[in-house]
């Protein structure tokens, strides 16, 4: 009784591989006069059916404040006056918990004479400084599995953004000041992950099966020659 041999047996390439990768997404608040309240929205992490393992998440809030400072000293003697362009920046999650915050400030100093009798932010007792600018950037990184799980999904994540003007002047006992404060920001989310996608399965004819088939056919031929004698 001749045994049937399997020809073209499938060889499975079981060796896998891993590869580190990064995905980012951003949203921004356009530069505008404070006070500002808005919502920043970024994409969640798509784990590709479990093939992508999230290693860490970094949130970075960066931006700029700028503004104009005008001061007038009403003192009867000279005064050194400082004008501060400032804002209190906060980023909160939907549970109203502060995630990131910053308080950038940029200043200019004015040496003013005694009040010249006119409140016009010019002359010897008044001054102005336009376009004062300061940058800010704050980051937070998550690595704990419980924290990372909140970022995995197919939807989006929203954050509340707020920029409250905090500009002020000081240095004279009698001071009139005027400020125009503007702020803008960008939120970037960075997903660091490992790609565990398995390699494609390759179908290869098994050499041993082909060899056995050849030997079997030779055996059948030998039996037929013996039968003819």
Task: Characterise this structure.
Helix content is 12%, strand content 54%. The chain has 229 residues and is mainly beta. The protein has one domain (19-194): Sandwich (Jelly Rolls), CATH 2.60.120. The strands form two sheets. Strands 2, 4, 5, 6, 8 and 9 form a six-stranded antiparallel β-sheet that branches. A four-stranded antiparallel β-sheet has the order 1-10-3-7, with no helix packed on it. The chain is rod-shaped and about 95 Å long.
List keywords for this structure.
229 residues, mainly beta, Jelly Rolls, 6-stranded antiparallel beta sheet, 4-stranded antiparallel beta sheet, 2 helices, 10 strands
Helix count equals 2
The SS-based structural class is mainly beta
* CATH domain fold name: Jelly Rolls
Query: Can you tell me the CATH architecture?
Result: Sandwich
The SSE order reads EEEEEEEHEEEH
Show unreliable segments: 1-15
CATH class: Mainly Beta
Residues in helices, as a percent range: 10-25%
Specify the biggest β-sheet.
6 strands, antiparallel
> Please, how many domains?
1
Please give the alpha-carbon distance between the first and last residues. 21 Å
**Rg from Cα:** 36 Å
Form type: rod-shaped
Q: Give the overall average pLDDT.
A: 86
**Strand residue percentage:** over 45%
Please tally the β strands and state the result. Answer: 10
What's the short version?
With 229 residues, the chain is mainly beta. The chain contains two helices and ten strands, in the order E-E-E-E-E-E-E-H-E-E-E-H. Strands 2, 4, 5, 6, 8 and 9 form a six-stranded antiparallel sheet that branches. It has a four-stranded antiparallel sheet with strand order 1-10-3-7, with no helix packed on it.
């Amino acid at each position: 009784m001749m045994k049937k041999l399997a020809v073209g047996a499938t060889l499975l390439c079981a060796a896998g591989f891993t590869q580190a990768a990064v995905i980012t997404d951003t949203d921004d608040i356009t530069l505008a006069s404070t006070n500002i309240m808005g919502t920043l929205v970024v994409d969640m992490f798509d784990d590709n059916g479990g093939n992508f393992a999230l290693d860490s998440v970094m949130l970075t809030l960066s931006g700029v404040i700028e503004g104009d400072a005008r001061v007038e000293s009403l003192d009867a003697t000279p005064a050194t006056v400082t004008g501060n362009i400032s804002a209190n920046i906060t980023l909160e999650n939907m549970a109203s918990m502060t995630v990131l915050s910053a308080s950038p400030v940029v200043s200019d100093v004015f040496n003013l004479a005694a009040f010249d009798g006119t409140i016009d932010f010019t002359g010897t007792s008044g001054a102005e400084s336009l376009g004062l600018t300061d940058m800010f950037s704050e980051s937070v990184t998550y690595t704990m599995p419980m924290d990372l799980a909140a970022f995995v999904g197919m939807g989006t994540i929203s954050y509340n953004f707020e920029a409250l003007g905090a500009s002020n002047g000081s240095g004279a006992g009698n001071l009139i000041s005027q400020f125009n404060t503007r702020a803008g920001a960008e939120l970037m989310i960075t997903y660091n992950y490992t790609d565990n996608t398995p390699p494609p399965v390759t179908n290869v004819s098994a050499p041993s099966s082909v060899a056995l088939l050849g030997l079997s056919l030779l055996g059948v031929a030998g039996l037929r020659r013996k039968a003819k004698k």
